[in-house]
Amino acid sequence: MSKQNKTIVNSWNEWDPLKHVIVGVADGTHIPPAEPALDAKVPEDSDMKGDWGPRSEESIFKANEQLDNFVKILENRGIKVDRPTPIDFSQKVVTPDFETGSMFGSMPPRDVILTVGNQMLEATMSYRCRWFEYLCYRPLIKKYSNKDQNMVHEAAPKPRLTDLDYRKDYLSEKIGVEKRLKWTAEKYFVTTEEEPLFDAADVLRFGKDLVVQHGFTTNLKGIDWLRRHFKDHNVHAVNFPGDPYPIHIDATFSPLRPGLIINNPDRRLPEDQRKFFEKNDWEIIDAARPAHNSPPPLCYSSVWLSMNVLVLDPKTVCVEASETNQIEQLDKLGFEVVPIPFRDAYPFGGGLHCATADVFREGKCENYFNFS
Predict the structure, then answer these.
(1) Residues forming a β-bridge with 187
(2) Pair type for strands 336-340 and 316-320
(3) How far apart are CA 361 and CA 112, in angstroms?
(4) pLDDT of 41 over the 80 cut
(5) Distance CA 128, CA 93 (A)
(6) Angle, CA of 144, 109 and 300, to the nearest 5°
C-alpha cells in the first residue's frame, strides 16, 4: 500500500496564515566585488563603494543572533522553520561568459525562491555573484519534493549575464540622484532586454494575480517569461518612479491583508496603475516614515526596510522592533504587531520579508480582482 501523500508546499499570497517558512542564515556572507548590476544598486555615497570581501565575524555573529531569535519567535507561534545550507561564498563565480571574485550569501531566501501554490521556482537572478545561490536551497527543496508528490520544483532559464545584459550608462562613478530619478521614471534601468531576468523578491502574490516590479533586477522579458510560465495567473507589471535604486518590491509596496496595501510615500505607484487596485476595492495608504535616518553600516538597503514586514496572518504582522512609527501605524490599523530585533541582519540582505521564503500558508488560490 502506498503512503498517503503529505502536502508540504502551498502558498498563494502574502497574508494567509503562515505555517512553514524558510529563514536565511548569515554564515559566510561576502560583500561581493564590483559588477554591473551591483554597481548600479549601491548608493553613490555608500560606505560599501570599492569595498569587498568576507563580512566580519562579529557582524555575522550579531546577524545570526537576530535571525535565530526570529526563528524562535516564529516556532513559539507554531510555525515550522527550515534553514538553508550555506555554500562556500568565498569562491569565484566562473562561467564561459564572465568571472567575478566571490559569491554573496544565503540570508535573503525571498530573493531566490518564489512559491506559487505547490510550486517553488528558482529565479534567474540578475547579479553574477548570486549565480549559484540556489544551491543553498536545493537540500530543502529536495526534501519537500520527496515528501510531497504534488510539489513542483522549477528553475527559470539561467541567463548568461554577459555585458549585453547591462547598460553602460550606469557604470559611471557619479550619475547623481536627479538623473537616476529621470531614468527610472522613463523606465531606463541598468538591466537591458537581452534575455529574461527576474529576482523572486520582485514578485508579490495576490492569489490569481502576480504583481511584478519592473526595475533594476527584473526586466520586461523576465515579466513576460513569468506570464508565459504561470499561464493560469494574471501577471501585472508595476514600477515606482520615485525610487532611484529600484531593487525588489517589498520595501516599496506591501499587501497586509485582502483590501489593504502600504506604499512607500517616496515611491508611490503611478496613478494609472493605482486605479487597477482601487477599482477592486484595495486601499493603498502611505507607509509610516522610518524611525531611522540612515541604514546600518555596510548595508545595501535603504531606511525603508522599515516597511519590509512579514505577515503571519491577516491580523498579525512582524515588524523590526526599533521601527516605532511602523509599529504604531499597524497597531492603529488593528494588527497584532510582533516586534523583531533585526537591524544587525539588515546588511546581509534586507528585512524580515527578505529573510524568509514561504513554504506553506493555509488557504487556496482566490481571485481578488475583477477585470470586467
Answers:
(1) none
(2) parallel
(3) 18
(4) no
(5) 7
(6) 175
Q: Which residue segments constitute the domains of the chain, with CATH numbers given? A: 18-361 (3.75.10.10)
CA 123 to chain centre: 11
261: helix, coil or strand? strand
Q: Classify 311 as helix, strand or coil.
A: strand
The set of catalytic residues is 199, 248, 354
Q: pTM to 2 decimals?
A: 0.95
Q: Are 203 and 114 in contact (CB under 8 A)?
A: yes
**Interatomic CA distance for residues 109 and 288, integer angstroms:** 26
User: Any bridge partners for residue 320, and if so which?
Assistant: 340
> Cell numbers at residue 350, please?
534586507
- Residue-wise pLDDT for 243-252, tens only, equals 888 889 999 9
Please give the C-alpha separations between residue 67 and each of 29, 30, 109, in angstroms, as whole numbers: 14, 17, 13
- Residue 313's identity, in one-letter code, is D
Q: State the cell numbers at 185.
A: 521614471
Any idea of the CA torsion for 357, 362, 363, 365, to the nearest 10 degrees?
Answer: 20
Contacts of 69 (CB under 8 A, 6+ apart): 340, 341
d(CA 129, CA 53): 12
